[in-house]
Batch of 2 targets.
Target 1
Amino acid sequence: MGASHSHRNKHCHSHQSPINICTKKARHDPILKPLNIQYDSKTSKRIVNMGHCFNVEFDDTADMSVINDGPLTGKYRLRQFHFHWGSTDADGSEHVIDGKVYPAELHIVHWNSHRYPTFEEAAKHPDGLAVIGVLLKIGEKNPVLQTIIDNLGQVKTKGKEHMLIKYELSSMLPKDLNYWTYPGSLTTEPYFECVTWIVLQHAIPISSAQLTQFRGLLCTAENEKPVPILENHRRVQRLHDRVVRSSCT
Ligand SMILES: NS(=O)(=O)c1ccc(CCNC(=O)Nc2ccc(Cl)cc2)cc1
Ligand SMILES: [Zn+2]
């Protein structure tokens, strides 16, 4: 669509995610603060097979597990995390860094409980959600991830859920919390442009055998012919008028 026609798009679909992050063009913004993450393992509730992925859901009825600072104003409440992966280790991440695709990506989804009463309401506003994106690279077996993987057998088919007690999500994160940030969208239906993306600059490891087990999840229900979730990552979208900022020089 040419620039002259972008008037309409400008208001509807020009802040889509994921994107390719050109690290050289990302500008260090001194106003950006270090990300402050406070997760309480008591808020972990259950793992759910959503059909296109699995969500690990948390109790978001109060500000118990929250993030603040970073590029954010006010507290954002932890709601769920999930992953995106590919049919082989050659692709799978949604964000791409200087053209480099990673084999998977973790999304930790938070909503602006400072300004909005519910997640659903927050999802209708540009400052409604904050998603931390963490790239995964093939490496040694990740013991924190293994706890999740050990539970995938209980949620093999679409709609199944299983309790997950006292999950220490913070232990999955890298020590280095430097990030890139930009205004974007949900990367699946309903694609609302309501996300402040916070993509960590440090990748975490997952073994190829662990990643293979993600692909063993089924997108079909118990009584249907089994179809595995081989991949669930969206292609990169155009940056348009957006600037990616970096928390460090
Ligand atoms: N891959 S990701 O991290 O970008 C991502 C995070 C969260 C979602 C949840 C989408 N679901 C949703 O937004 N549901 C909703 C919203 C408003 C109303 Cl009114 C009703 C339902 C999708 C993608
Ligand atoms: Zn996602």
Note: The chain has a mean pLDDT of 95.
Target 2
Amino acid sequence: MTGYKVANGNGHSNGNGNTKGTNGTNGHSNGHKSADYTAQENPTYPYEVIEEIADFITKGSGMRPKIGIICGSGLGSLADMIQDPKIFEYEKIPNFPVSTVEGHAGRLVVGTLEGATVMAMQGRFHFYEGYPLAKCSMPVRVMKLCGVEYLFATNAAGGINPRFAVGDIMLMHDHVNMLGFAGNSPLQGPNDPRFGPRFPALVNSYNKDLINKAIEIAKAMGIESNIHVGVYSCLGGPNYETIAELKALRMMGVDAVGMSTVHEVITARHCDMKVFAFSLITNKCATEYSDKKDDEANHDEVMAVAKNRQKACCELVSRLIREIHLASA
Ligand SMILES: O=P(O)(O)O[C@@H]1C[C@H](O)[C@@H](CO)O1
Ligand SMILES: Nc1nc2[nH]cnc2c(=O)[nH]1
């Protein structure tokens, strides 16, 4: 089913025009014939479209990867560790969105890491880019049909828990879906049971064995004092939060706040993938009023902290993947 087009009014194109972040016609213009869908009528991608994208990747790479990785802001180097990489620019993948955010290169990298077959998104899609949630997390379904069993999702986030320092890593053991509170979900629209049930349960979404293994690895790396286990919340962005919002999130038990991951995890759990996710704390969120300029988050700082901490993040991910691979060998 080439030529499928999601008409959501977001103006992104993955074709030769490569429209990044402009407002124009909807959906994709990759030269294929297109069927018309609107976000209201059909915010989801038909199974056959996902299947077609997955075929493009598995045939193009000659691989059926077992582990999928989504690189957070500034954490694209996770994908640079992949050996014998086959690289797919998002623009060249049929019916794929394009990345519009600095620190998100917009490439899918398929290869091996610590002996395991992996596919990594060097660049994710965010709600604030104008993409509906189903489109933001569509690549997770592509991963599923490529053969992926484990999703590793990483993100840059603001630390709300006062015990967190910049550069710490928070292993996610739960989330608060603020976009869901507002009536938005990547699973909205018709449900295709080939992916999963209409009403999926989300308790135990974050795999406890993987969290425990990651803690052991962090101890072996000597970074256990920089590791926390906590609750992440995704807001729509692109603005960072007000003090009142941060206070409210803290009262709700949120430890770190960002603009991604939750809808990817929901989509992954819907199709029964095992999930491991972590937040790199790139800035401390103030929960009291002050005149300090330091309290203002900014993307340059987020990127700089991610760059400084990429070595530790890469080691954590690669050692965990090695354990998964050895356990299944
Ligand atoms: O893709 P992630 O969630 O890592 O990116 C975070 C959220 C925004 O995209 C950006 C803000 O600095 O970083
Ligand atoms: N929403 C949000 N996203 C972030 N990404 C990195 N830092 C932050 C933050 O403070 N808030």
Note: The CA atoms of residues 133 and 186 lie 5 Å apart.
